[in-house]
């Protein structure tokens, strides 16, 4: 039955889908036809709009053609019209294209239909042929059957009958097919006819298209004519412009020629003036050069005199130095004696001499450094003050010098710059030298030197200062010849410092000289070279070589160099020699013949001659001038000098035995062109190896400074500054301050020996320092004489000699070890040349006294375990030259644990010997060797002795080892797994600890099949003292009691046991899947999985299959078994159903849903955090604004959020209001889920969600009972041991696609929608991932109310697209569907819901709303109410049939008054003549909320008299459904009195023609009478009743309430001919009376047949009703009677 129902449903679905498709095809065709009609209408409208413009364009074009010389205004007008034509033509073209396309589509459809009809007809023919063939075959088979029946052939009959049946079925199928094809052909033919009719309709359209195309061609021709006319006008204008330009060019050419003539004349005059100025300038230059030569000669003479005076001062300084050295030597001897006494005293007391002396020296050194530091601070203060005063004095001097220069004019102001630079450099150097020498100078020396210097400066220089500056002032200007007394006198050499200063000055002056030379040339002599639109940049000439370099020259010799200048510019160029640097003119001569103009790439030669007069380095330039500018060739002259270097600075001899001699060489190389004499000696900085390296560096620095420092001398009467200064020699004072002490210090060597007492050799370092002549304290230093201390590292034969240019010398160094220990000696190579600085190198070596030694005296066995054997090899080396007998011993305490093999041995001369060490630690080691073994650290230090039997010497060796245990500890030692079902695994944790300090490998072996150990299957490595947690996983395979042991083995095969117990349980139910792994699910999406709860327990026979039981207990009963899943409250998992009962052998379907969401508490906290942040920012801004208003100083200060919050908390009660975050902070519980902050926090957290993975274990309790309505699941007896567990792995990820509209909710709620109406909702989808996504959608129910209108295909990263879903309910019920959106990695689930509601309303007016009588051209209103009784907000619109858009079409039918009154359906009656609607309603559209009502006002405003005003009012809901219809009626009178009643005698439809009344001019007023109106009253008398009643009818007479007419208060009425009426049986009540305004009076008319009444001829009685008011009116009342039998049968 289910299959039949499903197949029937499929058939119905196919039929509905086919019908749906046919309807769609028809709608498409209708849409195409409608498109054609719309395009046709658009084209017609555009033609009407453009008609006027066409005529205008034609007129303008004709006028342009007739009048070519028209004005520009008419042309612009024509151009504007042309633009309009072009715009309209573009629209026409678009419309034509659309029309052509639609017509073509219509033709294509017709063609396709023809083809389809042709195909169906062919099929029909073939089908008919097949039917004929089958009929023939049937006849043939029938004949054959008759034959076989006669023959009695049963087998043939059965075969023939089978063929007959098959042919019959085929024939029936073919006939059915023929019918179907025939129906199809009929449908297609009808469709073709319909298409042909449509084509016929559009034939006119096609012709119209042709006409439009012709019109377009005409427009194209008109536009072409306009363009030709524009081109002609433009050509004429261009011709005029060309002529005007030619005239302007001629005038400009004339002006240019006149200007050019003037420029040439001015250039000639300027050239003549420049030539005169040039001759004058050359004369001045020659005069200046002559003066400078005279100055240089005077300068050389002064320098020679200064050198001679320095020689005399040198002799006096040498004597002073000798006396100072003698005094220092005596002082050193006294200190030596004091130290010897101290040493003897210490030895007498039995103390350590070396230690005490070292401490004493360190103490003296510390005190000296402390004192020197204090003095240095004082001296620096004095220097700073003196420098400040010097600067003031120098400023005063400079001002005085500038004034004298301006008065005398002796030299140029540019010459003072280099000397000023020299002065500042001298000040800087003086500061540096004073800072460096302050560590070795005393305070008294510094104060005395400062005083002497200041005393020699004249007081006139310090007259500007108001204080006594004699103790702090120094000389500001550096001597012109510095340092000549510290070198050998050489008249041809200039000091290096002066040369450096001079070079600095000349570099600064180079730019000024070149700029000056360039300015001397007349302007316009330099030209820019531009060739092929390229400007030449850079130097115009290149020289080969690029620099003129005279190397290694000799004074007095002549050197020549030739260079080649190459033209590197783009065009012809020439150059000439300008000159050379000023300071090179005495030594350099340049020979250059200008070659004239040179082409690019050509060259010329220049010869430079150099004749050195002084032995110093020179630098300068040779200046040239080219057409493009000046350029220079650098020139450099370097004198001969020595360049000395050593191939190495350290000689390492290594270790050697006492008594040997070792030799090594070091090479001294001179790569310079000047030779010198050298001398090798031991440095004064020799030290013990323990001496700090900083001391050696300091000693070297002091020695170098002492050797290089020489006294300086001031030279007065400088020709540059022209200032008189004091001549004084202060070099003697400086030389007295300095002392030079150079002594050889030999290092102290110590060596300890176990067989004899050690010999101590002490040494002393001699400190070189600048001593004060006034101080009595000195360093007490110890020094040994050369006789006591042997020298082990000495020089070879060559200690001094001559080294020539470009040569090398090898120096031999010898090492003769004498005393055991380390040796280090420093050597210094001194040179006679003052330019060469001393070179230092070191030599080190080690002396050994033992003939036997062990390269590794400390044997480290590292970490050892108990009861394990460890071996090592001890290698012994021999230095002796004979065989030695050795003996090896171990202490008695370690004899059980350590052994040396062999015990004795012989070692050959200068050979090695190996001894085997065996170490097997026992557990008794801590008790046996307590003195060598530390139990806390487990460190063993065992001494091993090697005895030299013949020499009674021994060598000690120490064996180091750390002894540890090899135990592994398992905690706990016993595990009880408890109850475990056969469907799950129970895990227990144990801790495995390595008690050793060595890593150990372990492994659990022999594991049973129901036990698993992780990680790494219970195998691994434990680091020292590491603890590892292991997971013991037990999985019972049957229901029983388990008891077993697990074995863990270490790498040394030690075993450790672990005891385990468990109880196996077989529950009566089982799960098809105990583990559910959900796919990565996006937030707010749903992932589902299905599983089954099965009850396989159908028998208690435990021999055939396993039965459910707990351990070895009873078997569970067979029967229905219940289950219940207990899901935690905070778990995002839903299980359906969570409670149920499973019968034996059955299973129950369970659905598990996972819907990850963000926790509500997290969202609330984030929302509060954002609110606080916004509040703090707002308070910050407010505070900043207040601060800016209060003071402008704080306007630029930016207060961070943290600072402001801190300030608010600190001030507490400050004048600023507290932050809303701190005072009015909202609580997370107060936030509503639909608040903006909550939604913002949700969107932010969803976008920043990084994903999470959660694991849930859901218990499923099992009970052997059935759940019913009476017995709740809580009352079932669940066994805790039969519990099943469902493990869920739930990964949650951030969604790649989110809904950003609807506050980010994934629910689309349409709410209440009227049945049959469609509502659409749009959702904004955004791709928040970094990838391009292609979205897929699940299929909604095709028969359901929801429809996916617009899907989203591709989404770029960050792109937002709309998704549109519609809801059209067809029933009054709730609807719900899930729409799955599939992305690449995640899915998004949208919940779509809505409720269909049937709209219902209640109207206060049921069917008819009668507006009554109204005076024509006045208005009256009436109100009715509509109440919404449904639960839906209704959208309404009020429609009137008189305003219907289809009213004109309906009026084309037959008039309603022609048809019978029963068939009349039109409710629209008389309308106004003015075209306005008679009835109007307000409001016409709006909404009515559920349960509310709306009032509507209907206005009746007729414009002429009529009794048949009517209309139909419709209440339309949602623009589709007509909910209520009201018939509106009304009557209008020109007079305020009306009479109504009776049978109408006219039609309700009046003519549209307005017939004005006849002209009444000339007629008297008395004759004007209103026409008499007739009213027919029909009365029917019922005959045959027991108590007959009279026939009754009534008339209504009323007066209209209006303010338009000022008539009487009442109107009178009266019936005439009353006796006649009474005679005929009529009774009128009342017959006369009055009517007030706004009152309606009813007149009752009754009739009883008189005695002479005749049925065959019923009487027609007339009576006159007269109305008298402002105007008299008369009505003729027609009384028509009729007697009706009461018992007559009704039709």
Describe the structure.
Helices cover 33% and strands 31% of the residues. It contains 17 helices and 79 strands. A hairpin with a 3-residue loop joins β78 and β79 (1672-1685). α1 runs antiparallel to α2 (72-151), α2 (72-151) packs across α4 (203-349) and α6 packs antiparallel against α8.
Supply database-style keywords.
1691 residues, alpha+beta, six-stranded mixed β-sheet, 17 helices, 79 strands
Radius of gyration: 66 Å
Strand content: 25-35%
Output mean pLDDT: 76
Q: Sum up the overall morphology in one term.
A: extended
Brief overview:
With 1691 residues, the protein is of the alpha+beta class.
Strand and helix map with partners:
Blueprint: H1 2-66, H2 72-151, H3 154-201, H4 203-349, H5 353-408, H6 416-437, H7 443-456, H8 496-520, E1 530-531, E2 534-535, E3 541-544, E4 548-553, E5 559-567, E6 575-580, E7 588-591, E8 603-610, E9 618-626, E10 629-639, E11 644-646, E12 650-657, E13 662-670, E14 676-682, H9 693-708, E15 713-714, E16 728-729, H10 731-737, E17 793-795, E18 800-803, E19 807-815, E20 821-831, E21 839-848, E22 852-853, E23 858-865, E24 870-878, E25 884-890, E26 898-901, E27 904-907, E28 912-919, H11 925-928, E29 933-934, E30 939-948, E31 953-964, E32 968-971, E33 974-981, E34 986-994, E35 1000-1005, E36 1011-1014, E37 1019-1022, E38 1027-1034, E39 1041-1050, E40 1055-1066, E41 1070-1071, E42 1075-1077, E43 1081-1082, E44 1087-1094, E45 1109-1110, E46 1121-1125, E47 1133-1136, E48 1139-1142, E49 1147-1154, H12 1160-1190, H13 1201-1211, H14 1220-1223, H15 1236-1247, E50 1252-1263, E51 1284-1293, E52 1297-1299, E53 1307-1314, E54 1319-1327, E55 1333-1334, E56 1336-1337, E57 1346-1350, E58 1354-1355, E59 1360-1367, E60 1374-1382, E61 1387-1397, E62 1401-1403, E63 1408-1415, E64 1420-1428, E65 1434-1440, ...
Parallel strand pairs: 4-10, 12-21, 23-31, 33-40, 42-51, 43-51, 53-61, 63-70, 72-79
Antiparallel strand pairs: 1-2, 3-5, 5-8, 6-9, 7-8, 9-10, 11-13, 13-19, 14-18, 14-20, 15-16, 17-19, 20-21, 22-24, 24-28, 25-27, 25-30, 26-28, 29-30, 30-31, 32-34, 34-38, 35-37, 35-39, 36-38, 39-40, 40-45, 41-44, 44-49, 46-48, 46-50, 47-49, 50-51, 52-54, 54-59, 55-58, 56-60, 57-59, 60-61, 62-64, ...
């Amino acid at each position: 039955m289910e299959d039949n129902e499903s197949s029937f449903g499929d058939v119905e679905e196919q039929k509905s889908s086919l019908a749906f498709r046919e309807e769609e095809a028809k709608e498409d065709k209708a849409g195409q036809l409608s498109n054609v009609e719309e395009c046709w209408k658009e084209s017609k409208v555009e033609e009407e709009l453009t008609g006027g413009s066409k005529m205008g364009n034609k007129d303008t074009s004709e006028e342009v053609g007739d009048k070519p010389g028209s004005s520009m205004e008419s042309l612009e007008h024509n151009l504007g019209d042309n633009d309009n034509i072009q715009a309209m033509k573009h629209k026409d073209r678009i419309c034509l294209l659309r029309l052509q396309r639609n017509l073509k589509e219509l033709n294509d459809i017709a063609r396709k239909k023809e083809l389809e009809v042709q195909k169906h007809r062919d099929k029909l023919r073939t089908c008919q042929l097949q039917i004929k063939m089958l009929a023939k075959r049937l006849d043939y088979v029938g004949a054959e059957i008759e034959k076989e029946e006669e023959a009695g052939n049963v087998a043939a009959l059965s075969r023939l009958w089978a063929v007959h049946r098959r042919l019959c079925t085929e024939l029936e199928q073919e006939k059915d097919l023929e019918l179907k094809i025939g129906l199809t052909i009929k449908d297609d033919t009808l469709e073709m006819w319909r298409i042909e009719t449509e084509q016929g309709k559009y034939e006119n359209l096609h012709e119209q298209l042709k006409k439009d195309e012709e019109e377009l061609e005409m427009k194209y021709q008109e536009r072409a004519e306009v363009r030709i006319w524009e081109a002609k006008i433009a050509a004429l204008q261009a011709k005029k412009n060309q002529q005007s330009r030619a005239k302007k060019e001629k005038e400009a050419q004339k002006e240019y020629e006149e200007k050019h003539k003037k420029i040439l004349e001015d250039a000639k005059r300027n050239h003549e003036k420049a030539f005169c100025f040039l001759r004058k300038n050359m004369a001045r230059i020659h005069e200046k050069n002559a003066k400078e030569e005279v100055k240089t000669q005077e300068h050389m003479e002064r320098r020679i005199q200064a050198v001679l005076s320095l020689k005399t001062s040198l002799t006096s300084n040498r004597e002073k130095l000798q006396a100072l050295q003698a005094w220092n030597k005596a002082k050193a001897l006294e200190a030596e004696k004091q130290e010897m006494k101290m040493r003897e005293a210490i030895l007498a007391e039995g103390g350590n001499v070396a230690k005490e002396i070292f401490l004493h020296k360190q103490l003296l050194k510390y005190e000296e450094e402390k004192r020197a530091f204090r003095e240095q601070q004082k001296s620096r203060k004095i220097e700073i003050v003196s420098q400040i005063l010097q600067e003031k004095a120098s400023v005063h001097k400079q001002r005085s010098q500038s004034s004298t220069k301006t008065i005398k004019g002796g030299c140029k102001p540019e010459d003072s710059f280099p000397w000023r630079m020299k002065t500042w450099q001298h000040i800087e150097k003086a500061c540096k030298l004073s800072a460096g020498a302050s560590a070795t100078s005393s305070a008294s020396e510094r104060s005395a030197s400062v005083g002497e210097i200041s005393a020699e400066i004249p007081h006139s220089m310090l007259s500007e200062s108001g204080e006594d500056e004699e103790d702090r002032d120094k000389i500001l200007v550096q001597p012109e010849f510095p340092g000549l007394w510290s070198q050998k006198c050489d008249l041809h050499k200039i000091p290096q410092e002066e040369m450096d200063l001079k070079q600095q000055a000349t570099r600064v002056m180079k730019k000024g000289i070149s700029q000056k030379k360039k300015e001397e040339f007349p302007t316009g002599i330099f030209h820019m070279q531009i060739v092929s639109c390229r400007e030449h940049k850079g130097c115009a000439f290149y020289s080969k070589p690029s620099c003129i370099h005279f190397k290694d020259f000799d004074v007095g010799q002549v050197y020549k160099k030739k260079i080649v200048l190459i033209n590197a510019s783009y065009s012809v160029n020439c150059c000439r020699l300008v000159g050379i640097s000023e300071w090179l003119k005495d030594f350099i001569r340049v020979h250059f013949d200008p070659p004239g103009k040179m082409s690019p790439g050509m060259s010329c030669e220049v010869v430079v001659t150099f004749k050195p007069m002084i032995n110093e380095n020179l630098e300068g330039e040779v200046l040239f001038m080219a057409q493009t500018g000046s350029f220079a060739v650098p020139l450099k002259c370097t004198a001969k000098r020595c360049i000395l270097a050593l191939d190495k600075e350290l000689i390492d001899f290594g270790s050697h035995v006492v008594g040997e001699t070792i030799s090594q060489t070091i090479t001294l190389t001179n790569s310079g062109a000047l030779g010198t004499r050298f001398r090798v000696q031991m440095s004064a900085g020799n030290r013990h190896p323990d001496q700090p390296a900083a001391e050696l560096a300091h000693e070297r620095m002091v020695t170098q400074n002492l050797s290089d420092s020489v006294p300086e001398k001031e030279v007065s009467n400088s020709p540059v500054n022209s200032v008189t200064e004091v001549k004084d020699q202060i070099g003697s004072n400086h030389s007295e301050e300095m002392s030079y002490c150079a002594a050889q210090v030999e290092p102290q060597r110590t060596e300890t020996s176990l067989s004899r007492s050690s010999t101590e050799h002490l040494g002393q370092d001699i400190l070189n320092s600048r001593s004060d002549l006034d101080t009595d304290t000195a360093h007490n230093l110890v020094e040994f004489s050369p006789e006591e201390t042997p020298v082990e590292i000495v020089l070879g034969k060559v200690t001094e000699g001559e080294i020539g240019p470009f040569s090398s010398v090898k120096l031999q160094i010898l090492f003769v070890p004498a005393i055991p220990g380390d040796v280090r000696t420093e050597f210094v190579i001194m040179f006679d040349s003052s330019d060469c600085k001393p070179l230092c190198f070191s030599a080190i070596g080690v002396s050994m006294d033992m003939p036997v030694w062990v390269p590794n005296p400390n044997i480290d066995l590292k970490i050892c375990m108990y009861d394990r054997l460890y071996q090592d090899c001890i290698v012994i080396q021999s230095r002796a030259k004979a065989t030695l007998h050795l003996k090896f011993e171990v202490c008695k305490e370690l004899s059980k644990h350590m052994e040396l093999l062999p015990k004795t041995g012989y070692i050959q001369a200068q050979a090695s010997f190996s001894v085997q060490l065996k170490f097997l630690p026992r557990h008794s080691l801590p008790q046996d060797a307590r003195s060598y073994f530390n139990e806390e650290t487990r460190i063993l230090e065992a001494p091993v002795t090697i005895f030299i039997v013949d020499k009674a010497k021994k060598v000690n060796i120490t064996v180091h080892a750390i002894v540890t245990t090899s135990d592994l500890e398992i905690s706990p030692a016993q595990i009880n797994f408890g109850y475990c079902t056969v469907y799950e695994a129970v895990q227990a944790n144990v801790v495995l600890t390595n008690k050793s300090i060595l890593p150990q490998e372990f492994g659990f072996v022999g594991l049973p099949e129901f036990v698993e150990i992780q990680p790494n299957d219970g195998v691994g490595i434990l680091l020292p003292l590491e603890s590892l947690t292991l997971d013991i996983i037990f999985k019972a395979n049957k229901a029983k009691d388990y008891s077993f042991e697990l074995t863990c083995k270490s790498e040394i095969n030690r075993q450790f046991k672990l005891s385990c117990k468990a109880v196996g349980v077989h529950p009566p139910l089982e799960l098809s899947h105990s583990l559910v792994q959900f796919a990565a699910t996006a937030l707010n999406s749903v992932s589902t999985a299905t599983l089954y709860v099965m009850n396989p327990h159908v028998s208690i026979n435990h021999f055939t299959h396993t039965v459910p039981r707990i351990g070895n207990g009873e078997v569970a009963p067979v029967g229905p078994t219940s289950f219940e899943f207990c899901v935690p409250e905070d778990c995002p998992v839903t299980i359906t159903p969570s409670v149920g009962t499973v019968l034996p052998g059955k299973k129950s379907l369970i659905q598990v849903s996972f819907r990850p969401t963000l926790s509500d508490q997290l969202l609330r906290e984030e929302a509060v955090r954002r609110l606080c942040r916004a509040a703090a920012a707002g308070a910050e801004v407010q505070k900043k604004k207040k601060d800016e208003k209060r003071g402008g100083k704080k306007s630029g200060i930016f207060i961070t959020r943290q600072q402001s919050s801190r300030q608010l908390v600190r001030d507490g009660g400050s004048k600023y209001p507290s932050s809303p975050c701190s005072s009015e902070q909202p609580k997370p519980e107060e936030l509503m889920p639909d608040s903006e902050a909550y939604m913002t926090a949700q969107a932010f957290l969803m976008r920043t969600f990084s994903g999470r993975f959660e694991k849930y274990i859901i218990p499923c309790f099992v009970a052997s009972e059935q759940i019913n309505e009476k017995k709740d699941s809580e009352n079932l007896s669940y066994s805790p041991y039969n519990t099943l567990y469902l493990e869920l792995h739930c990964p949650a990820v951030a969604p790649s696609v989110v809904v950003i509209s609807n506050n980010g909710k994934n629910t689309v709620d349409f709410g209440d929608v009227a049945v049959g109406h469609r509502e659409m909702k749009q959702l904004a989808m955004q791709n928040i991932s970094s990838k391009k996504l292609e979205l897929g959608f699940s299929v909604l129910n095709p028969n359901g109310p929801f429809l996916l209108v617009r899907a989203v295909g591709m989404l770029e990263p960050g792109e937002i697209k709309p998704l549109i879903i519609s809801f059209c309910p067809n029933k009054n019920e709730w609807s719900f569907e899930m729409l799955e959106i599939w992305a690449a990695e995640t899915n998004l689930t949208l919940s779509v819901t809505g409720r269909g509601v049937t709209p219902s309303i209640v109207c206060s007016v049921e069917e008819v709303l009668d507006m009554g009588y109204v005076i024509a051209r006045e208005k009256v209103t009436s109100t009715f109410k509509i109440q919404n009784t449904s639960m839906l907000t209704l959208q309404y619109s009020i429609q009137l049939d008189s305003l219907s858009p289809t009213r004109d079409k309906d009026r084309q039918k037959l008039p309603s008054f022609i048809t019978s009154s029963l068939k009349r359906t039109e409710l629209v009656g008389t309308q106004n003549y003015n075209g306005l609607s008679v009835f109007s309603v307000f409001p016409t559209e709006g909404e009515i909320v559920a349960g509310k009502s709306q009032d509507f006002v209907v206005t009746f405003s007729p414009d002429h008299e009529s009794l048949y005003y009517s209309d139909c009012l419709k209440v339309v809901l949602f623009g589709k459904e007509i909910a209520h219809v009201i018939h509106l009626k009304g009557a209008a009178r020109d007079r305020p009195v009306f009479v109504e009643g009776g049978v109408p005698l006219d039609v309700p439809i009046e003519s549209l023609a307005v017939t004005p009344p006849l002209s009444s001019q000339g007629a008297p007023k008395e004759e004007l009478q209103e026409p008499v109106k007739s009213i027919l009253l029909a009365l029917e008398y019922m005959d045959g009743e027991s108590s007959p009643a009279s026939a009754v009818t009534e008339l209504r007479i009323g007066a209209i309430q209006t303010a338009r007419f000022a008539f009487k208060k009442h109107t009178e009425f009266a019936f005439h001919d009353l006796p006649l009426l009474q005679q005929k049986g009529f009774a009128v009540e009342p017959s006369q009376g009055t009517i007030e305004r706004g009152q309606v009076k009813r007149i009752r008319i009754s009739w009883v047949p008189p005695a002479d009444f005749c049925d065959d001829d019923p009487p027609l009685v007339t009576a006159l009703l007269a109305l008298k008011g402002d105007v008299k009116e008369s009505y003729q009342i027609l009384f028509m009677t009729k007697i009706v039998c009461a018992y007559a049968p009704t039709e």
